[in-house]
UniProtKB/TrEMBL annotation, chain A:
Lineage: Bacteria, Bacillati, Actinomycetota, Actinomycetes, Streptosporangiales
GO molecular function list: magnesium ion binding; oxidoreductase activity, acting on the aldehyde or oxo group of donors, disulfide as acceptor
Keyword line: Oxidoreductase, Thiamine pyrophosphate
PANTHER family from the UniProt entry: PYRUVATE DEHYDROGENASE ALPHA SUBUNIT, PYRUVATE DEHYDROGENASE E1 COMPONENT, ALPHA SUBUNIT BACTERIAL AND ORGANELLAR
Annotated ranges, domain Dehydrogenase E1 component: 24-264
Segments traversing the membrane: none
Name this protein carries in UniProt: Dehydrogenase
Family annotation (InterPro entries): DH_E1 (IPR001017), PDH_E1_Alpha_Subunit (IPR050642), THDP-binding (IPR029061)
Gene Ontology biological process terms from the UniProt entry: pyruvate decarboxylation to acetyl-CoA
Pfam families, per database record: E1_dh
Domain of life (superkingdom): Bacteria
TrEMBL record, chain B:
Keyword Oxidoreductase listed: yes
Name of the protein described by the UniProt record: Pyruvate dehydrogenase E1 component subunit beta
Needed cofactors: thiamine diphosphate
PANTHER family: DEHYDROGENASE RELATED, PYRUVATE DEHYDROGENASE E1 COMPONENT SUBUNIT BETA, MITOCHONDRIAL
Xref: Gene3D superfamilies: 3.40.50.920, 3.40.50.970
Protein's UniProt keywords contain Oxidoreductase: yes
Keywords for this protein: Oxidoreductase, Pyruvate, Thiamine pyrophosphate
GO BP: pyruvate decarboxylation to acetyl-CoA
UniProt-listed Pfam families: Transket_pyr (PF02779), Transketolase_C (PF02780)
Length: 307, 325
């Protein structure tokens, strides 16, 4: 067993225990949801972030308690990296007692402290701009997670224009996974996100790394500038969606899915320090198993009974 | 004597003066222009960055207003012409209105979206609409309309007090009319939310009309002609809150009810009012409630064509006469 304090890992292995816990909590939570769907015990739909977990884990450590986070349909990772409360989130998704929003919102509509998600693409950016206007000068910022598909919505451009004009502390995190539901980016986006940001005079930073420490190191001064100047920033992550858009609706050819799997952080981290990884992996898998068992046994949530 | 536009402008000044959490956003609202209808004149000079002239982005303006409201402030958003509120439909109905309840607990969203409505000014099909009907029945959303009888400052206080987003419709023709002054023949009083306009000492009216603020003067012209030329006494009820439809006073004795609505035919506010009244009046009504609406057509620019589409005093008079004949 490795001691918990492991400060001097190699640069290629800059994860600490907390980060790995967070990554694996999200991974096992999402896997559990797909299993629960297969078992027919979840209703509606869900959108898992398998493969993209490292993005909110990297970003959340750069956020302060007074920052406001806006999330989207694929938001479980965003939530768990910010608020490690798998019980409340699963209860919300399953409509059980202790649900974050009484079971009214479900997977895509969570409002907890300063975290808010909603299910219409691009809708959150103008709202985040308004919240950012209020936060400007306090050092806090509004952070909005969007995808590459979101850039089809006009609301994105209206908001970027205002955020740039009015110097709003708005951090736009783009999870560019190359596919919007079933449509490849090449078939739905002309030009680039970088050029679109540039058109509004908004700083853009492209992240190809999947290394949480490396990502943070690069982003930290940029996020500080968002707060201090204040000014908007678009951070575009080149990432991969490991799972289907929602559940069982993956139409990508097998060789493409194989390529995506090869880029996954999970196996890479497991190989770097097998014993350490296996321990925390088991710990988080068992934690999620307990959460599933416990929440599944709860009574239905009541209207107006938000946690 | 105060013009409606001056009254509204003063109400905004008073509100922003008394409540530093109020923001105002809209296209061209800053000085010296002061808004397309000059309603926001003088505000940007007094209240600085709390008043923002925005890009032409109705959707995002409404969204920014909702964001400010979510963050604990209050926002008034001006849509230059009510027709353009269609561009903000998603932000208003899917975000601001739903947010008040979709998170499992009441979330206050103190947001007022001001929408200058209506025709009879020759602005044509995309600058003359009464879009109220498109927002009826949206959970979490309330609709109000400016009238010559209701103090606008009190209405703003009420709307913000609801903690949910409100649309506030302002008929452009009303801007140049006088507040609290109407035809000398009639008197008015406020019964809770509703202005009641009546002929003093006339007893039971032959017909009770219900309308919204923008149609008050056309309806009064019809009532005057009905009285003087047809010997028919009408009473008029004007609620400031359009939806949910508030209780309408004094209809128990009404021999007949007409609802007058400047929106085009089909899925109308008038039908919503009638739906609210039928269960209450069913036993006493002698005939169906008469619904008077603008025609099912776009609103033409040429004045002679526009007149044919929109509700006018003579069409109200004709409809009342026909119903009572």
């Amino acid at each position: 067993m490795i001691a918990t304090a492991a400060p001097s890992r190699s640069p290629r292995h800059a994860l600490n225990d907390g980060d790995l816990r967070s990554l694996l909590l999200i991974r096992h939570f999402e896997r559990a949801l797909l299993r629960l769907f297969e078992q027919g015990v979840l209703s509606g739909t869900t959108h898992t972030c398998l493969g993209q977990e490292y993005i909110p884990v990297a970003v959340s450590a750069l956020l302060r308690d007074d920052d406001f986070v806006f999330s989207n349909h694929r938001g479980h990772g965003h939530f768990l990296a910010r608020h490690p409360d798998p019980h409340g989130l699963l209860a919300e998704i399953m409509g059980r007692e202790g649900a974050l929003c009484g079971g009214v919102g479900g997977s895509q509509h969570i409002y907890h402290r300063r975290f808010l998600s909603t299910g219409v693409q691009g809708e959150s950016l103008p709202v985040a701009t308004g919240v950012g206007l209020k936060l400007a000068g306090t050092g806090a910022l509004a952070c909005a997670y969007i995808g590459d598909g979101t850039w089809g919505e006009g609301a994105v451009y209206e908001a970027l224009n205002m955020a740039s004009l009015w110097r709003v502390p708005l951090l736009v995190v783009v999870e560019h996974n190359g596919i919007a539901q079933s449509t490849p980016t090449s078939a739905q986006m002309a030009g680039t996100i970088a050029a679109r940001a540039a058109a509004f005079g908004v700083r853009h930073h492209h992240v190809t790394s999947t290394d949480v420490g490396e990502i943070r190191q690069a982003l930290a001064p940029l996020v500080d500038a968002v707060r201090a100047e204040p000014s908007p920033l678009v951070v575009e992550f080149a990432t991969h969606r490991l799972g289907p858009h929602s559940k069982g609706d993956d139409t990508r050819p097998p060789e493409e899915i194989r390529r995506v799997r090869e880029s996954d952080w999970y196996d890479r981290h497991a190989e770097l320090d097998p014993e350490w990884f296996a321990r925390i992996d088991r710990e988080q898998r068992e934690l999620v198993e307990r959460v599933v068992a416990e929440v599944s046994a709860r009574p239905h949530s009541r209207s107006g009974g938000a946690a | 004597m105060t013009r409606v536009s001056e009254h509204l402008n003063q109400a905004l000044h008073d509100l922003m003066e008394s409540d530093p959490s109020v923001h105002l956003l809209g296209e061209d609202v800053g000085d010296p222009y002061g808004g397309a209808f000059k309603i926001t004149r003088g505000l940007s000079g007094r209240f600085g960055s709390r008043v923002r002239s925005t890009p032409l982005s109705e959707g995002a303006i409404a969204g920014v207003g909702a964001g400010l409201a979510l963050a604990g402030d209050k926002a008034i958003v001006e849509i230059m012409f009510a027709d353009f509120v269609a561009l903000a439909f998603d932000q208003i109905t899917n975000f601001a209105a739903k947010s008040t309840s979709m998170y499992g607990r009441p979330v206050p969203v103190p947001l007022v979206v001001r929408c200058p409505t209506g025709g009879n000014r020759g602005y044509g099909p995309t600058h003359s609409q009464n879009p109220q009907k498109h927002f009826i029945g949206v959970p979490g959303l309330s609709l109000f309309e400016m009238t010559p009888f209701h103090d606008v400052g009190e209405l703003f206080a009420r709307m913000f007090g609801l903690g949910r987003p409100c649309l506030f419709f302002e008929d452009k023709v009303l801007y140049t009319r006088q507040m609290f002054r109407i035809d000398d023949l009639f008197r008015f009083e406020l019964v809770d939310d509703v202005a009641r306009v009546y002929l003093d000492g006339a007893g039971r009216p032959d017909c009770t009309l219900v309308t919204h603020g923008g149609l008050v003067h056309r309806t009064l012209d019809a009532m005057r002609a009905l009285l003087l030329e047809d010997d028919l006494v009408c009473e008029l009820l004007v609620p400031a809150q359009l939806y949910p439809v508030p209780p309408l006073p004094g209809l128990e004795d009404a021999p007949h009810v007409c609802v007058v609505d400047d929106g085009t035919e089909g899925g109308t506010w008038a039908a919503e009012v009638a739906t609210a009244l039928y269960p209450r009046l069913w036993d006493r009504l002698r005939r169906p409630i008469t619904l008077i609406n603008s025609a099912d057509g776009v609103i033409p620019a040429a004045p002679h064509l526009e007149r044919e589409v929109l509700v006018q005093a003579d069409s109200i008079r004709a409809a009342v006469r026909e119903a009572l004949s």
